[in-house]
Amino acid sequence: MKKTIIISGIFWLVLMYNAVANDARLTVEPKTFTSRSGVKVQAEVGTLKVSENRENPKAATISISYIKLKGQENSAGTPLFYLEGGPGSSCTWQAENPDMLENWVPFLAQGDVVLIDQRGTGAGYQRLLYIWQKPLPDNLLVDKSAHDQHQATMNEEALPLFAERNIDLNGYTTIQNAADLDELRSALGYEQISLMGFSYGTHLGQTYMKYHGQHVKNAVLVGVEGLNHTYKLPSSMDMQFQKISLLAGRDENLATTVPDLNKLYLRVIQKLTDEPVTLKIKSPLSGESMPVKIGAYGLNLILRFDIGDASDLPVFPRLLHMIDQGDYSALQWFVQKRIGFLYGIHAMSAVMDPASGATESRKAQIQSESISSAFKDVVNPGMDSKNWPTPDLGDDFRAPLISDIPTLLLSGTLDFNTPPFQAEEVRWGLANSTHIIVNNAGHEQILTHPKASETIIRFLSGENVADVTMSQPELQFIPLAGKAKKDLWHPSLN
């Protein structure tokens, strides 16, 4: 009896010690958020301290921020961890935004929702940020080699700065990111969780499933990037543009003036190759006007950044037509929108993607497709970044995920970033999965479909959703001239 009492005492001491240890790593503050419709959501705003690199005993301690939206009274479902894309985007801000919070309210009928700022995002963003403070090189958006040299120069300047901040870049991998999730799961006292990832968040979600799958009840992957999909195939962008060209050819507002969008594109590319144009752009640092020269390379970069988002696709024919006619005002808007990416390095995203990397066979496929691709120079910007230290997670990491975790995959037919065929490749290794393809949806339009949240919630509650179909409205292009209709407005035409 005495021995039993001693063992019980030791057991409770261990539990108390673990609780104290967890409390020491966690900071928690209660808070109430209000959705657009006025729903009051009780929450815990917290941080979890983790090692910046678990393979380095001397690594710094960093904080992972999270907000736990508490499930409604009597909700007993598995807690849902939301994983944002990027890599490099935060998501805890969604709790403070009434419109975004409104989207999460229906999920709270199932249980807790945990919004997580991945390592190096949110409050940790500034520590990993380097800003270029000098004038931009002249041919940066004219010649790929000038762009690559600028990136290499920024690398040379950023690395000593990151070293001064005691940043261990080798810690910024998706495996370490997944380990953060598991430590947070444990610290919050959850034995099992559900995952919902978007874009890069699906890459992270699959990593968690691969290395910590015993703790996953089910998973939702929206805009699927497999473990060997970090670097894009040039053929995907070629096909996307050809598909847009076919859709534009069916549009009665365009067909008379631009019967072949691809021919217009080739004409505009040749024009900017022969004579790059200099535009006046507002500096993101000083706010002052500055000249920026744009050639064919710069236009292709613009198309690369936005060709997967259906909110910008409707203006592409007009953008190209305006350039062809000597009007660069819409192009100026797009360059202004994207000019910031030339001014800095976010170390988290700069390491995370290259660390995931690609198998030699995928690299060979990219190289082979680049021979004939019109977009070969822009499909994977930064893939060959010079003088940047990058850990390699290896082909064991990139090997297909094999799992029987119930998984729902969602894709959009107009999504270049994560096309539906990638989801099908991932699904091949998932023994218990459903793939819903949202017709006419780009990368950002999958979750905005009115039935998307309802379908995901049904899936999380155990229902079979294989019979669900979703379709966004058919893509409508903005006319090539005149004022656009209110429902076909785009800010580049202001």
Indicate the topology.
Blueprint: H1 2-25, E1 26-34, E2 40-51, E3 61-69, E4 80-83, H2 93-96, H3 98-104, E5 113-116, E6 129-131, H4 144-164, H5 174-187, E7 193-198, H6 200-212, E8 216-222, H7 234-249, H8 252-255, H9 261-274, E9 277-282, E10 289-294, H10 296-306, H11 316-324, H12 329-338, E11 344-346, H13 347-356, H14 360-370, H15 394-398, E12 407-412, H16 420-427, E13 433-439, H17 452-460, E14 470-471
Parallel strand pairs: 4-5, 4-7, 7-8, 8-12, 12-13, 13-14
Antiparallel strand pairs: 1-2, 2-3, 3-5, 6-11, 9-10
Structure description:
38% of the residues lie in helices and 17% in strands. Helix 5 packs across helix 6 (200-212), helix 9 crosses helix 11 and helix 10 packs across helix 12. A hairpin with a 6-residue loop joins strand 9 (277-282) and strand 10 (289-294). It is globular. The protein is an alpha/beta fold and 494 residues long.
Biggest sheet descriptor: 10 strands, mixed
Shape: globular
Please state the structural category: alpha/beta
**Can you give the helix content as a percent range?**
25-40%
For the termini, the CA-CA separation is 83 Å
What's the gyration radius in Å? 24 Å
Rounded mean pLDDT is: 93
β-strand percent reads: 15-25%
Numbering strands along the chain, what is their spatial order in the largest sheet? 1-2-3-5-4-7-8-12-13-14
Low-confidence stretches: 1-22
Number of helices: 17
Number of strands: 14
